[in-house]
Amino acid sequence: MRVIEHPILGSIKDAEYVNITIDGKPFRAIKGEVIAAALLANGIKLHRYTAKHRQGRGIYCGIGQCTDCVMTVNGVPNVRTCITPVEEGMAVQTQDGLGVMRV
Questions:
Q1: pLDDT of 13-69, one tens digit each?
Q2: What is the C-alpha to C-alpha distance for residues 31 and 99, in angstroms, rounded to an integer?
Q3: Could you tell me which residues are beta bridge partners of residue 30?
Q4: Alpha-carbon gap, residue 67 to 48, rounded angstroms
Q5: Could you tell me the maximum CA-CA distance found in the chain, to the nearest angstrom?
Q6: CB of 83 within 8 A of CB of 34?
Q7: Could you point out which of 27, 45, 66, 68 has its C-alpha 20 to 30 Å from the C-alpha of 56?
Q8: Are 100 and 77 in contact (CB under 8 A)?
């Protein structure tokens, strides 16, 4: 799910791609797009599970104000994926509860 041709923003045909992993699986993302957009483009809507009831969460506000889209990124929990751009080699993981810092 990605807009390939936009009347104002133009085309992404010449976009530069980077390689990332999501839950250990390799994916490609457009350099500079936010993690949440890369996830949606690859059909992934679930970002985390709540601590108390283990309910699935994904994008809610999309502007960094809530915490529904947080994931563990490069071992750091609670990264807001709706405002964090992808980078080459980034490791993104579905977060369980409050997350655990991995160094």
A1: 778 999 999 999 999 999 989 999 999 999 999 999 999 999 999 999 999 999 999
A2: 26
A3: 17
A4: 10
A5: 44
A6: yes
A7: 27
A8: yes
Alpha carbon distance 77, 11 (integer Å): 34
Q: Let me know if domain 14-95 sits in CATH 3.40.50.1380.
A: no
Whole-model pTM: value is 0.86
Residue 52 has which token pair?
């108390």
**Would you list the domain boundaries of the chain?**
14-95
pLDDT bucket at 8, cuts 50 / 70 / 90: confident
Strands 5-6, 10-11: parallel, antiparallel or unpaired by DSSP?
Answer: antiparallel
